[in-house]
What we know:
The chain is an alpha/beta fold. The protein has an eight-stranded mixed beta sheet with strand order 11-10-7-12-6-13-15-14, sandwiched between helices. The C terminus is likely disordered. Bound molecules: NADP nicotinamide-adenine-dinucleotide phosphate. The site of NADP nicotinamide-adenine-dinucleotide phosphate has 28 residues, from β6, β7, α7 and α9. NADP nicotinamide-adenine-dinucleotide phosphate binds next to β6, β7, α7 and α9.
Amino acid sequence: MAHSEAERRAMSRALELAARGPRSRNPQVGAVILSPGGEVLAEGWHRGAGTAHAEVDALSKLPEGGARGATAVVTLEPCNHTGLTGPCSEALLAAGVARVVYAIDDPGKTSGGGAERLRAAGVDVEAGVLADEAGAFLEPWITSFRLGRPHVTVKWAQSLDGRAAATDGTSQWITGAEARADVHRRRAEADAIVVGTGTLLADDPQLTARIDGRLAERQPVPVVIGTSRVPADAAVHRHPANEAVGGQPLVYPTHDLAAVLADLRDRGLHRVFVEGGPTLVSAFLRSGLADRLLVYVAPVLLGGPRLSLDDIGVGTIGDARRLVIDHTATLGDDVLFEARLRERRPWPGKEED
Ligand SMILES: NC(=O)c1ccc[n+]([C@@H]2O[C@H](COP(=O)([O-])OP(=O)(O)OC[C@H]3O[C@@H](n4cnc5c(N)ncnc54)[C@H](OP(=O)(O)O)[C@@H]3O)[C@@H](O)[C@H]2O)c1
């Protein structure tokens, strides 16, 4: 049976509920239980590893038998395995749910298969409702899960002629206020914000997320990569998120980006926002470690030698890194291109499921 308008609305609500959960090793998942007539009976969301999964959280708010014949609307396929908690497919069956609607399949080999189990037990199951929205929301977690490393967004601002700075190294600001506000909103959604020592020494950036001139509630942890010494009075030492990682920004005196990402993942930092400059951004692209690109292009010419990218490992046109543009936006006078690489290179050490 095709999903109803009430189920679509419930999925939209379930995505809102999912966002209340913490960003951790586990996915953020939301659930809504609907009566056969489409009224909301209960809502739930997952609060992190070891706590109830979203659908079980929602069911727990109903009296015994309260979900009999109901529809469970869940953002991720109900799991089918016993981890720290029991399988959600069994909990839904025990509650007597008649129909399950979910957005995207569970990518896990061990946790997946919930839909099959439910169908085999006679439950009507529909997958793919608001799959694009749910997929975009869970993309960082899916990357982290599949590849065993954080999801990496690489951002830079450039002039129309492809420069990241003027000849003397000044780059504040190439783009206008609206584009910069967009960057700050995205910073607030990230777990870590990364620069190379070149940018740290040239710009002394604060690396905070500021919205309407005020510090955002959620702040990404600042990360500096490179062997040059970070000055004791660098602004990044006063970053409010340092507290979460022992009082100091995370400084990695290395060029081994894979090792840095592995450490960030171990610290539970799954959404990494790389803000440059050109040397570090190019190194991420060269290593195949950029999942999403945000390129802010300003209608200005800078000329000169400071290109927004240097060597990204393309020696000949046949090796060009082709992109898929997912989204463009006009932000004041500037244009944002949101893109991903058409071909993603495998992450060494962990095969894709
Ligand atoms: N337009 C923009 O969006 C934007 C953004 C940021 C900066 N900028 C501008 O860019 C300029 C700074 O550029 P930049 O390229 O020097 O900055 P950068 O990319 O931030 O830093 C480069 C440094 O990062 C370190 N590093 C870490 N991992 C590396 C790796 N895998 N490969 C190579 N180097 C690695 C190296 O430092 P060590 O030698 O210390 O190891 C390298 O010299 C400034 O003018 C700044 O204003 C522009």
